[in-house]
Sequence to fold (130 residues):
Amino acid sequence: MNLRGRNKVSAEFSMSSMTDIVFLLLVFFLLTSPAITPDALDLILPKAKGKTSNVQKASVSITKDGAYYVDKERVSEYSMENELKKVLAGQDEPTIILRAEEGVPIEDAVFVMDIANRNKFKVVLAVRPN
Fold:
């Protein structure tokens, strides 16, 4: 009496589904990685614990020598408010990312914060991770 089954189970493993999953994970991590930095000047930011927001509406950079930049474009103190109004016009939640280089006097940062306060702009201070 022959009781062996006719269906034989194959011991082979198909790697095609595994490579699909690895490819999708690779694409996901490439798209969500923090390697994509917003357009900004190369400044040495102060250290702090916390995160910097990646949502960018307008970037204000202040260098050690007192130069102000709005989105890589140098502006004077006197035209700063008008330039920010122009850049943030029509935004639902106007946000300024303040990038003050390490060693910048606090008065320069407060100047930008005062402009933001008068115009109801939200300010986020950019720092480098600790």
Observations:
- The radius of gyration is 26 Å.
- The first helix runs from residue 16 to 32.
